[in-house]
Write a structure and sequence with these properties.
The complex is a heterodimer of chains A (132) and B (462).
Chain A (H helix, E strand, L loop, with lengths): L2 H22 L6 H12 L2 H10 L4 H31 L14 H13 L1 H12 L3
Helix pairs in contact in A: 2-4, 3-4
Chain B lengths: L1 H22 L6 H20 L8 H20 L5 H27 L5 H28 L13 H21 L6 H17 L7 H23 L2 H25 L3 H5 L2 H7 L16 H10 L2 E6 L1 H5 L3 H13 L3 E6 L9 H8 L7 E3 H4 L8 E5 L8 H4 L18 E6 L19 E5 L2 H17 L1
Parallel strand pairs in B: 1-2, 1-4, 2-3, 4-5, 5-6
Helix pairs in contact in B: 1-2, 1-9, 4-5, 4-8, 5-6, 5-7, 5-8, 6-7, 8-9, 12-18, 14-18
The chains are: A mainly alpha (132), B alpha/beta (462).
Chain lengths: 132, 462
């Protein structure tokens, strides 16, 4: 067994254990972002695809490599962007910053009331705003 | 100098990936973790592009631009309810890349492959193409291009196993003598066919497990690619992805009290196909209008809402959040209870509720909340079925017996929002619906929630 393969196996072993231990602590709340994040990370297969596509080893390599680069780039770019989009949506009941303890609640309540009673409000508004 | 810079880039990338995953273990640090992982990826890509091996950039730039455009468009415009499809599709892309890189490497290096490298390459190609087609099938089912019901036929498992056996045999022969070039296409095609056949018999309710498992395969094929290309960063990323997928599938299986083989070799499918459930005679249920339900809710002090896949189908998350807000304003304590396999992928419901602005500390997992149902005045089940079926606790003959469920039947009143009396994906009647304390609110989840909000608003104001 070559030294490089041996080192690779050690890396695989240790990374698997680290991965298991770290990911075990991810709460169910974040299971979907976790999946899209690990997906983006696994998009590092881009690195291998780049070498295949860019090292000028014949038409087949270049063609397969180019498709592979496209596919992995979709995963890397898309994966990170959508994980960010998801993580931005998660927020606690009371924001830790000094926006006042009940900052979110009245806000959401306000919109809820407005949209729910939109029917009656809309019917009433044009008449009151209309000078006639 | 490159001899140092490139490996160090990869090393830093590997470290940053782990930091990134560690970040996502807590809401506070999640986005910082994401940024760390992004930085790692950037380093790895830059490190690769400055390598001496990379000589032509035309195709690279084209592919990078096209890929970025598609990736950006997909992530910006996809609705949150379609997350399971998107994840399935991205597994397909990742696995395709691995399979193609493996193919190119094989034809580049074919007579000189060492036994170990050939083994890694065969594994990479096998898992890559299998995951590619399997994920595409999962995508098709989730997007409802393909029928979501399990497609089963006699002798299916035997056919599948035989096919896998032939593929593995071709792989072994290739490892023993990599110059048998004719076998390589056989291996690739059989792996792709096996991927299709593997996912076809799996029903919608098992999608969380299947997606997790495909995630794990995609990761493993990435790690195998790392061995083929002798790139340690790839091995690390593949191992992280693989262990994450494996861990999630274990969690999903445990939440359904089923084993891997049971999910993969279609026990549910056969139950569904094996004739309708015995108890199909008409039994009385109590149904209620939104008006009557709203009257009960008005006096409730503690309400637990249990969302399921039906919520996603009806896109009812915003209306349900509105309902929760109105109830809270009326003085009730509102909590959301989420079963690990609710929806079509791990954490599906959490994302939908987050999208609808439900604060995450109002959302509880099964283990956290199950003790609280006894104090709840109302348990409102929205589009969830099997995960609330008391038969899982009491009826050893039920196919879902032993599956951990949300104890909604401990609440004083149970309200079930459901389109009709159709049984769930497991094809099992839900005993819950026939209990005296259960009120059925028939209709589309969004319409029912809308009705409840309206009635509550009216009576609160009056």
């Amino acid at each position: 067994m070559s030294a490089s393969v041996e080192a690779g196996l050690y890396v695989l072993l240790l990374a698997s254990f680290v991965g298991f231990e770290v990911i075990r602590r991810v709460p169910p709340l974040f299971h979907t972002p976790l999946m899209s994040l690990t997906n983006a990370i696994a998009g590092i297969s881009l690195v291998g695809s780049l070498v295949i596509a860019g090292s000028d080893r014949g038409a087949l390599s270049t063609a397969l490599g180019t498709i592979a680069v496209t596919a992995s780039t979709i995963n890397v770019v898309g994966g990170f962007l959508i994980t960010d989009r998801m993580l931005k949506m998660f927020r606690p009941r009371q924001p830790a910053t000094a926006r006042g303890p009940a900052a979110t609640d009245p806000a959401t309540t306000g919109t809820a009331t407005r949209s729910a009673s939109a029917g009656s409000a809309d019917a009433g508004r044009p008449r009151s705003e209309d000078p006639r | 100098m490159n001899d140092y810079v490139v490996p160090l880039c990869y090393l830093a990338a590997s470290g940053l990936f782990i930091v990134g995953l560690k970040g996502i273990t807590q809401p506070r640090t999640a986005r910082r973790g994401l940024q760390a992982a992004e930085a790692g990826m950037l380093l790895a890509i830059v490190g690769t592009l400055i390598q001496k091996q990379v000589v032509t950039y035309t195709w690279l730039i084209l592919a990078l631009v096209i890929g970025s455009a598609i990736g950006t468009a997909m992530s910006l415009y996809i609705p949150m309810t379609a997350m399971p499809q998107r994840v399935a599709l991205s597994h397909a892309f990742g696995a395709l890349a691995a399979g193609l890189v493996g193919t190119a490497e094989y034809y580049n290096r074919e007579p000189h492959l060492s036994t170990f490298t050939a083994g890694a390459l065969v594994l990479e190609v096998l898992l890559g193409f299998l995951t590619f087609t399997g994920s595409l099938m999962a995508f098709g089912k989730l997007q409802e291009i393909l029928p979501g019901r399990p497609q089963v036929y006699r002798g299916q498992n035997a056919v599948n196993l035989a096919l896998l056996g032939v593929a593995v045999a071709a792989g072994v022969l290739l490892v023993l003598d990599p110059s048998r070039t004719l076998l390589f296409p056989v291996l690739a095609v059989l792996a792709a066919v096996f991927g299709v056949l593997l996912v076809i018999p799996i029903g919608g309710a098992d999608m969380p497990t299947v997606i997790s498992l495909l995630n794990s395969y995609a990761g493993l094929s990435g790690a195998a690619m790392g061995f083929v290309l002798d790139n340690k960063a790839l091995i690390v990323a593949g191992a992280l992805d693989g262990s994450s997928g494996l861990l999630l599938s274990i969690i999903m299986c445990r939440a359904m009290n089923r084993s891997f083989t049971n999910v993969l070799f279609g026990a549910f499918g056969q139950v569904t196909a094996g004739g309708p459930p015995a108890a199909s005679e008409e039994r009385p249920v109590r149904s209620a209008t939104p008006e009557e339900a709203a009257m009960l809710m008005e006096t409730a002090r503690k309400v637990i809402i249990v969302p399921g896949y039906g919520l996603a189908v009806a896109q009812a998350q915003h209306k349900i959040r509105e309902l929760a807000t109105v109830l809270a304003r009326n003085g009730a304590e509102v909590t959301f209870a989420i079963h690990p396999v609710a929806g079509r992928m791990p954490g599906h419901m959490n994302v939908l509720l987050a999208e609808a602005d439900v604060p995450y500390d109002q959302i509880k997992d099964m283990d956290e909340i199950n003790g609280e149902f006894t104090q709840a005045d109302i348990a409102l089940v929205v589009g969830a079925n099997d995960v609330t079926n008391p038969a899982a606790r009491t009826d050893p003959a039920s196919p879902i017996y032993g599956m951990p469920i949300l104890n909604v039947d401990s609440a004083r009143t149970v309200m079930v929002v459901k389109r009709g009396m159709n049984p769930g994906f497991a094809g099992v009647e839900n005993e819950l619906y026939f209990q005296d304390k259960t009120l059925m609110l028939f209709g589309d989840a969004k319409a029912v929630a809308d009705g409840l909000v309206r009635e509550l608003e009216a009576s609160v104001r009056a």
